Amino acid sequence: MMARRVVLLGVAFFFALNAACGGHSHPQSSDQPAAKSGTQASSAKAAEGTPPPPGSPLAKIQAGMSDAEVQKILGEPDNRNFYPTGKGFIPFYYGGDTARTDWIYKGKGRVVFSHNRWSGSLQVVRVDYNPNETGK
What we know:
By secondary structure, this protein is of the alpha+beta class. The chain has helices spanning 2-20, 38-47, 67-74; strands spanning 79-84, 99-105, 109-115, 122-129. The chain is 27% helix and 21% strand.
């Protein structure tokens, strides 16, 4: 009986380890998309958190502003993106910033808001300046 439990525990450990390692030992299989080139990855990384120049309308947006204040300055966004943050998956976490909303402005960039799950209000976290923003 004890030997059977040890064997079952060993098998369970093997499958857990195999799942954690991705299930294969090949560095890149053919079913995965090709990695981005260095210039594409660096330009995408540079757009996140890039402060706007002084002449840009996004320069008027400051961290802590509400969505209504941003809308008065920039108007309606061309697109919106809502997504959860990792804090939303922490058991018994009652703080804020469990979700984010991006307001995307074509040819200008993004305004990233923290979403308060209790009041539903939005508050600016950062502004990402990107004159090549497509609005999608």
